[in-house]
Amino acid sequence: MDKRIKLIWDFRGPQSRETARHFELHLRESPLFKPDIPTGVEHLSEMHSLAFMVVAASEMPEFRDALKPHRGSLAE
Questions:
Q1: Which among 42, 33, 37 has a CA at the least distance from the CA of 8?
Q2: DSSP 3-state of 57
Q3: pTM over 0.90
Q4: Diameter of the chain by CA atoms?
Q5: How many other β-carbons are positioned within 10 Å of the β-carbon of residue 41?
Q6: What is the rounded CA–CA span in Å between residue 8 and residue 70?
Q7: Coil, strand or helix: which one is 45?
Q8: pLDDT digits (tens, 9 = 90+) for 47-70
Q9: CB neighbours (10 Å) of residue 29?
Q10: Mean pLDDT, to the nearest integer, of 33-52?
Q11: Which end of the chain is more exposed for a tag (fewer CB within 10 A), N or C?
Q12: CA triplet 9, 55, 21: central angle to 5 degrees?
């Protein structure tokens, strides 16, 4: 089975929660998005939230180049 990569966009500041939620909507509007691709939002603190998308490692370069995530990690 292909490894899964979690592409991550970090947002910091007092509006990070709302910004991450809004950005997730934009991820779902991407021409690359498919209904089976998991997306979500995590709130790490009052001042740090993130939006994410989990893709197959084989598709990661296409998504990375188009969507410019801040970082990535292996998905669990």
A1: 42
A2: coil
A3: yes
A4: 40
A5: 19
A6: 6
A7: strand
A8: 999 999 999 999 999 999 999 999
A9: 8
A10: 97
A11: N
A12: 35
